[in-house]
């Protein structure tokens, strides 16, 4: 089955700095890669995702890059703010034609991001 | 949380007891999922459903059962609770196999 490794496990930055979290996956057939943000006591919230036919996607201060050859993808947060402090999870799944494989996500272990004011 | 609600928020069970975790969504999600999150770990898929009457096992289904009699509800049943089932349980839903929207979770302790 799929295996997703996420690094680093903790990341501490100063407000305004950039933060980068990296994930690698094992199954070359995986083609959907979402990132989730989880605040304390809450459920994960989808913040950005990328499909394998795209190399990069941006949404304001957040971007995700995908390298299919190397089987890794990364989350980039620029101009970090204290409210970005949370646990971030990457995930991977295979979605086939007609929706087969049903979006079964395999998650990384999570990164605790702390942004210091 | 995009209309996914879970009850209860917290529960303490004794070993061997049973319970049902409730999950309801009002966003017409066809796809629904149950995950568990152990401390310091990522989420693992327990069961999923792609529509009413259709369910299948995920990565860690042992000790659990699900049903999907309606589009809105996707309850998770624990039979004969064990300490290894102490975890936080999240239900998620989505229109299709891509974006998944999570509920607030149920924190379960088995002692």
Sum this structure up briefly:
Chain A has 117 residues and is mostly beta strands. Chain A has strands spanning 4-7, 10-14, 19-25, 32-38, 45-51, 56-59, 62-67, 72-77, 86-92, 106-107, 111-116.
Structural description of this entry:
- The complex is a heterodimer of chains A (117) and B (111).
- Chain A is mainly β.
- Chain A contains no helices and eleven strands.
- In chain A, the strands form two sheets. In chain A, strands 2, 4, 5, 9, 10 and 11 form a six-stranded mixed β-sheet that branches. A five-stranded antiparallel β-sheet of chain A has the order 1-3-8-7-6, with no helix packed on it.
- In chain A, strand 7 and strand 8 form a beta hairpin.
- Chain B has no helices and eleven strands.
- In chain B, 0% of the residues lie in helices and 50% in strands.
- The termini of chain B are far apart.
- The chains are: A mainly beta (117), B mainly beta (111).
- Chains A and B meet through strand 4, strand 5 and strand 10 of A and strand 5, strand 9 and strand 10 of B.
